[in-house]
Amino acid sequence: MTLQIPDTLVEPVIRLALTEDLGRAGDLTSLACVPQDARLRVSWTARQPGVLAGLACARLALHALAPDARFEALVEDGQRVGAGQALARADAPARAILSSERTGLNLMGRLSGIATLTRAYVDAVAGTGARITDTRKTTPGLRHLEKYAVRCGGGVNHRFGLDDAILIKDNHVAACGGVRPAMERARAAAGHLVTIELEVDSLDQLEDALPLAPDVIMLDNFSLGDLRAAVALAAGRVILEASGGVRLETVRDIAETGVQVISVGALTHSAPGLDIGLDAA
Questions:
Q1: Considering Cα of 7, then 119, then 117, then 42, what sign does the dihedral take?
Q2: Which of 25, 11, 8, 2 is nearest to 107 (CA)?
C-alpha cells in the first residue's frame, strides 16, 4: 500500500514554517549573494539508514517559493532507505532552493525519525500479533504529520484528539465518583461509532471493569506477570492495550503476554531525527 498524506494537510504547516524562517525581510543571505536568475540542481540524500516519511514537505516547501520548480521523488514514504541513497532531486531557481531548504529538511528529518523508530518497534514484535500504536504525546501543531509518520513506520494510530474517542482515565473516574458512573455516562453519551476505552491500573480494577463492557481496556504500567494474568482474565472478551514505560528492549516481552495493542509515547516524543542532507548535484 502506497502511503501518502494530502497536500492540503501539509501546506499550512509549510507556510507557517516558511513564515517563521523568512521573517519580515526574507532570506538575506540568498538575496545578497545569489543572482536572481541563478538555478540549481540538487538532490536530497539520506545520510543514515532509516524509513522515509514526509518527502512531500521538501516538495511543498520548494513549490511554495518556486511553483514551477521541477521536483522528482526517487523513493516513497514508508520505504527503507540506506545511507547515501538519493531520495529526490530538483531543478529550480537557486534562491527558492536555498530559502526552502531548512524547512523541508527539518520536517522530513523529524518525520523520518519517527517512522524509523516505529519500524524498530514493529519489527521487535513481529509474529506476536500485537500492534504498535502511538499516543497524543506529539509536537503541538504537527500531530497529523507525526501520526502519519507512525503509519509510514508500520504502526497504527491511537485517537487523534479528544474528539474522536472516549478514553476514561483515573482522573475522569475521580471526577465522576467511580468507574461505574463514568462508564454509564459515557455509554449514554456516545454515538454508535464512538469507541469507549477505560484505563485500569490493577487486576482488581480490571475485574471490576470487565462486566461494564468497554470496547478497550488500557492496562496502565502493568508488570509482565500482571499482563499475562489480565489476558487470561479477559479471555478475549475485550481488546487489551498495554501502556506505560514501554521501551524497545521490553516491547517483545510485553507483546508475548498476549495483549493486542501496545501504545508507545516514545514514538513521537523521543524519536531522534533521521539525518537527511541537500546537496548540489
A1: negative
A2: 11
Tens digits of residue pLDDT in 109-129:
999 999 999 999 999 999 999
Global pTM?
0.96
Residues annotated as catalytic (active site), given as ranges: 102, 137, 169, 199, 220
- Which distant-in-sequence residues (6+ apart) come within 8 Å of 206 by Cβ? 200, 217, 219, 230, 233, 234
Contacts of 41 by beta carbon, 8 Å cutoff, 6+ apart: 89, 90, 91, 280, 281
pLDDT at position 269 is 97
Alpha-carbon gap, residue 28 to 36, rounded angstroms: 13
**pLDDT value for 1:** 63
Residue of 273, 266, 280 lying closest to 52 (CA atoms): 273
All 3 cell numbers of residue 37? 536568475
